[in-house]
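quick one, 417 residues, struct below
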Amino acid sequence: MAARFTVASGLTNNKYCNYFASFSVRSLSTFALLTVTLTLCFVYSSNGPNYLTSTMDGFLYAQNKTHLLSTAKYDCLYCEQPPTFGYTQEQLFDACMDPGVVPEYYLSIVMSARPEEYTPDHYARLQHTIDSTFLLAESTKTLMELLLIDWNPESQRRPLRDSYRFRRSDYLTYRILTVPRQIHQSLDVSEQSPIHASQAKNLGIRFARGEYVLSANSDVIWTPNMHNAVISRSWRKGMFYTQSQNDTLTTTSETDARIVEIPNFATDDTLAQACDQHDDYAPGHFKMSKVVDTDLLETNALLRMARHAGDFTLADRESWKLIKGYRETGANRGVDTELLFTAAWSLGLPVAHQPSSTFNCHQQPRLPPQQDTDIDIDAMRQKKVSYMNKLDQWGLQGHNLYKEGMQCEVFHGGLGM
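---
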């Protein structure tokens, strides 16, 4: 028989004392343990990431002004600026890079800012993309960040921060990560080129602060569908998204409605109307397509679905970290296609493909697309191969980024509406 709880002599005749005395030590211990467990669960759920990310706009509760600390020089003299006095340069760098324990924004848009000679008219094209993202944030009134990776810039080129117009927004935060040539040349890659786009995007994905992270190219214009999807809070966690693709390798503005011609120094109205044919649902009622059954589609259909996935690949940031970004070692082409099938077959993550709706248009001219010939779809489907980075070998892990000269700037923009 279990030992009984006893009360000091003189009190045992009290009916309440007799009642408590009837409890066994084991019962009291169980009750106490249950109480502590429930308390800890409540504290964890109400303060931890799970609570904040379980609600549709949980990111609104995680705003941290220390994440605006950086070495960036603000050109908006009358705008509120975070105090940087008393911090070392390394502390400011760490604050700028910090992704935070929980998301601060609904969406992080990650792009590699390629060297100007990589594509014709790159300066104007990237400026259009920056302005289109500004309009996306302003029109949806949704907190987001544009994360530009300036990879291996030319030594005599002006810094990205001083080369483009970053208009001030209460909803959009800009962050620029500049990867110097020292880091670029230290990477063991099979093909030396001015930029390693996969590594650049992985760096942004690794440090993104958004609840959802969108990997895109730096020549896109957001469509009304994208505005609507953001307003409708269409994305769901634990899955990857891609958009409508063109079935052919040769695409022009005549054969692909996603390609648009935009004049230099385009106005906001021009940018807003450039892709206005891609407007499929009433405002606030965007509907996401069903998950693709990748096991049933033939190889050619899968390749068509994912051929230009690098233009639009979206998932919550935990799913990105689970898949460890794009493959960095041994991949030459088709890493965006490869990533979607790795998510589906190696990790069992659903892939949602929007077969008709387009989230962004692309500015013409574009580089000629290439066939994804070095991807063994059947081997991936049968789980004979898995193209995933190692846990600590993606997104420049293993590098002392501050000591190796990387720079981080974060700001709200300096020019008003």
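DSSP finds 14 helices and eleven strands in the chain.
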